[in-house]
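Is this the right way to post structure tokens for a design question? Let me know if I should format differently. Anyway, here goes:
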């Protein structure tokens, strides 16, 4: 079999990704990494999991290979396949095999979306064997100590059908993420968008309202990501109302009543009928 010369170029995180720690997640991840224990990141959408992984890859000077999992993802998509061209038949590594060869951090985003038969291919890599059998080529790829497997999932969206098997989850240490605390979230918005602290503060308060509505009309509250989007629009000169409508209310819900309530919460002077549950509000 031809030797695989795989480059880390393109996977290295060259500049430090800005990341505000929520707690001791950096120390936890580093300790897991040094002990070659795979890591599971749990938390709602837009709360900083991907940014954290980018930051850790930079901190540990490892390439980062990210795979967004979906329900059509097959084991071959992860491990690799033969590609037949007119001239030759060539083996092409999938992202997981590539990550093992280059000693990368392999981040499987939204792992529960992947089919169960796909998820099991990570099992031998995720326990102390740390190998990836490549059935089609007969290879057994051994992970070096630098290789790290990390997966993420959002426990809020799972149904019984789409949950992680115990045999998968019990191979990982878990780090829990949530929306950052107010002061931290304000700082993140200011840093990511350039808006002033006052606008950031209003956005954080508004986010708090929507998060309280989770399960009572909203599937999910406004994420830090959405707040950053709203702030970025405003920083580009979009007025607060259309910026918040586009980045927050329309993004959060298609329900016209809920939408009206959310917009009213942001602009109470225009809407005297604002529901009490949405006070205090942005003005
Ligand atoms: N702790 C943090 N430090 C710096 N930026 C943050 C932090 N948390 C959230 N952000 C901001 O929020 C945005 C969204 O975060 P990110 O993409 O990491 O979310 P996620 O948890 O991976 O969401 P998903 O589950 O949908 O993939 C980031 O691009 C960044 O601007
Ligand atoms: Mg993400």
């Amino acid at each position: 079999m031809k030797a695989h010369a795989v480059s880390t170029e393109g996977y290295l995180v060259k500049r430090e990704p800005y990341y505000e720690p929520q707690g001791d997640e950096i120390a936890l991840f580093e300790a897991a990494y040094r002990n070659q224990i795979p890591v599971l990141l749990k938390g709602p959408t837009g709360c900083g999991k991907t940014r954290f992984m980018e930051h850790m890859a930079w901190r540990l000077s490892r390439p980062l290979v990210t795979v967004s999992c979906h329900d059509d993802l097959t084991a071959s998509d992860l491990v690799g396949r033969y590609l037949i061209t007119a001239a030759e038949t060539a083996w092409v590594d999938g992202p997981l095999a590539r990550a093992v060869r280059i000693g990368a951090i392999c981040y499987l985003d939204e792992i529960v979306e992947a089919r169960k038969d796909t998820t099991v291919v990570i099992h031998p890599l995720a326990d102390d064997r740390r190998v990836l059998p490549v059935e089609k080529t007969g290879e057994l790829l051994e992970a070096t100590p630098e290789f790290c497997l990390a997966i993420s999932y959002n426990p809020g969206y799972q149904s019984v059908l789409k949950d992680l098997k115990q045999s998968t989850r019990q191979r990982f240490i878990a780090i829990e993420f949530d929306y950052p605390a107010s002061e931290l979230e304000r700082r993140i918005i200011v840093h990511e968008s350039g808006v002033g602290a006052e606008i950031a503060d209003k956005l954080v308060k508004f986010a708090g309202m929507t998060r309280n509505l989770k399960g009572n009309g909203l599937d999910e509250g406004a994420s830090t990501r959405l707040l950053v989007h709203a702030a970025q629009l405003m920083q580009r000169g979009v007025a607060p109302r259309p910026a918040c409508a586009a980045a927050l209310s329309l993004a959060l819900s298609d329900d016209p009543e809920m939408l009206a309530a959310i917009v009213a919460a942001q602009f109470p002077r225009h809407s005297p009928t604002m529901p009490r549950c949405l006070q205090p509000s942005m003005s």
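Format looks fine. Someone answered above. Worth noting: Confidence is low (pLDDT under 50) at residues 270-283. The two ends are 67 Å apart (CA to CA).
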